[in-house]
Amino acid sequence: MTTGQVSNYTGASVLQDSLPAAQWMLGDRGYDADWFRDPWKRKG
Questions:
Q1: What are phi and psi of 38, to 5 degrees?
Q2: 36 with 9: CB under 8 angstroms?
Q3: Torsion of CA 20, 24, 39, 41, to 10 degrees
Q4: Is 2 in contact with 10 (CB distance < 8 Å)?
Q5: What pLDDT score was predicted for residue 1?
Q6: Residue 18, SS3?
Q7: Which ranges in 1-44 belong to alpha helices (H)?
Q8: Rounded CA separation 11/20 (Å)
Q9: How does pLDDT run across 10-41, given as a tens digit for each residue?
Q10: CA triple 43-12-42, angle to 5 deg
Q11: CA angle, 24 as apex, 19 and 29 as ends, to 5°?
């Protein structure tokens, strides 16, 4: 959990490595960044 003034990227980057591989990922355009998507692609 983060305060309202902290970007969602902060929490997302922390959780990203601990999430399992998935066939689908839903997100809004706010997460449309290579640094966010590339680790998911590598995970499969």
A1: -60, -45
A2: yes
A3: 120
A4: yes
A5: 58
A6: helix
A7: 8-15, 34-43
A8: 16
A9: 777 788 778 787 788 777 776 678 887 887 78
A10: 15
A11: 90
Decide: helix, strand or coil at residue 20. coil
Length of the chain: 44
By three-state DSSP, how is residue 33 classified?
Answer: coil
- Predicted pLDDT of residue 41: 80
The pTM score is 0.47
Which residues contact residue 39 at a Cβ distance below 8 angstroms, ignoring those fewer than 6 apart? Answer: 16, 17
Evaluate whether 39 touches 20 at the Cβ level (below 8 Å): no
Amino acid found at 36: F
